[in-house]
Amino acid sequence: MKYRNKKTGAIAEALEWTGENSATVSSFLGRRIEFNSSNRTMRFDLTEDSFIQAGLGDWIIKDGEGNLSVCRSNDFTSEYQEVAEEELELV
Fold first, then answer.
1. Measured distance CA(39)–CA(56) in Å, rounded
2. Rounded CA separation 73/64 (Å)
3. For the chain, which has fewer Cβ within 10 Å, the N-terminal or C-terminal residue?
């Protein structure tokens, strides 16, 4: 799904981590994820030496350059809005 940053206007792809969508998240990221069932978090490697961790309800964001980040649910809903496919065709 595509979202627009309300401050910058930049378009990004984003996906919410629900704890039930491991395969979807892995496909979205293009890499394997590790799931921790005791605290229901997941993590994925950025490089050999760094990783990102997300908790339930967090959003994984992929910007236009392919950079990845995680945003807490409350922050995501205040900073991003969904963009309809029709709007993207006009850009």
1. 9
2. 20
3. C
The Cα 56–Cα 73 span in angstroms is 9
What is the model's pTM?
0.85
Closest CA to 56 of 37, 41, 43: 41
Tokens of 83: 């963009």
Range of the domain at 53: 2-90
For 1, the token pair is 């799904």
CB atoms within 10 A of CB 44: 19
Write out the two tokens for 30: 């293009």
Query: Per residue in 48-59, pLDDT tens?
Result: 788 889 999 999
